[in-house]
Amino acid sequence: MAVESQHPASASLIPNAKDRRSFALLAGIAVLWWLVYNHLQAIADLLTYDLVGLSADSHLGSSVNFFLYDVPKILLLLSGMIFLITVLQTFINPQRVRELVSGRAEGIGNVVAALFGAITPFCSCSSVPLFIGFVEAGVPLGITFSFLVTSPIMNEVAFVLLLGLFGWKVAALYLVSGITIGIVAGIILGRMKLERYVEDFVYQLQGRGRQAAGMEERLNWTERFERASSSTREIVGKVWLFVTIGVGIGAFIHGFVPEGALTNIMGEGAWWSVPISVLLGVPLYSNAAGIIPVVSALLDKGASLGTVLAFMMSVVALSLPEMIILRRVLKPRLIIIFVSVVALSIVITGYLFNLVV
To answer: pLDDT (tens digit, 9 = 90+) per residue, 225-263?
Structure first.
């Protein structure tokens, strides 16, 4: 019996009648999304100052306005980005990406793994299962670490939010630095020959991981949109609370923390601000969508860009839940080495940002 190709493809990319109705519905939703997004500030002002009656000059009014504007803004950006990414991912076969990564030499493999990590919308904890799959498939450990580091740091949701909030220069610096950290950290960890610190059962599963992923998946446009819609509802349903809490913290900083109060702690003049910020971020846990509002508020209050981004990267890439999950497959010494290498890379990146921006 002939085996179907594993290349992701649809039965036909030419829209049928049902697909055309789906495109029309999607277009209507996109127009509504755009109209709401572009009037969020006016809606927040109306609710805060006209309906509730708070003063624009008060700390509480400023905080409430920030909260009512940022929560829907971030959720709209998040929803739109996840939908688009999921549609694109229906054209990607993870098994073929795994084969592509495992067939590359050091350096090139790290770059491929880091780029793949950059386009996958995973937080640190959700990156771990795919990391385990890479190890089971026989991908070199250093290359798998490049994916594990880059995937939560260089989150495309964070990239879009940074682009919308701070402009393309900050977003581009974030993109380049996140991928670079993943590549460099993976190469360093790979050359340290740490395979003996991976739990033995993982290597016993490698033969299973190298087996073919299965038959080709064929989807029409309507099925792709339905899958993207389902994924959007699922992910937003999981992160909306993080977003709300993050915006709440950001709103408090925005409204109540005096101008310049954070400059002495997270400003460029304090040489210890970057490592302290990274240390503060390691025990915390959030995703990119939840931490971006805090980043925005910190920058508004005078914190330096490199220090704040270093704090954000440590929060999303070195969380305690991630370390707990990794403990199932990595021995404690390797986890300590992994955290140390990534934390050092983030500190260096923070200093570089403060020097050049």
So the answer is: 888 888 788 767 866 776 788 678 777 876 776 655 555
Q: Extract long-range pairs of 332-337: CB within 8 Å, 24+ residues apart.
A: 333/197, 334/194, 334/197, 334/198, 337/189, 337/192, 337/194, 337/197
Minimal CA–CA distance to 294: which of 244, 246, 257? 246
String of DSSP letters for 211-260: S---SPP---HHHHHHHHHHHHHHHHHHHHHHHHHHHHHHHHHHHHSPTT
Task: Give the pLDDT of residue 153.
Answer: 72
| Structure tokens that stand for 141 in this block | 């450990």
Tokens 């570089």 belong to residue: 352
Computed from CA positions of residues 250, 254, 255, 261, in that sequence, does the dihedral angle turn out positive or negative? positive
Element (DSSP H or E) covering residue 141: helix 141-153
178, 148 contact by CB (below 8 A) = no
Q: How many angstroms separate the Cα of 7 from the Cα of each of 91, 221, 241?
A: 9, 17, 37
Q: Which amino acid is at 3?
A: V
Q: What's the pTM value of the predicted model, to 2 decimals?
A: 0.57
SS3 198: strand
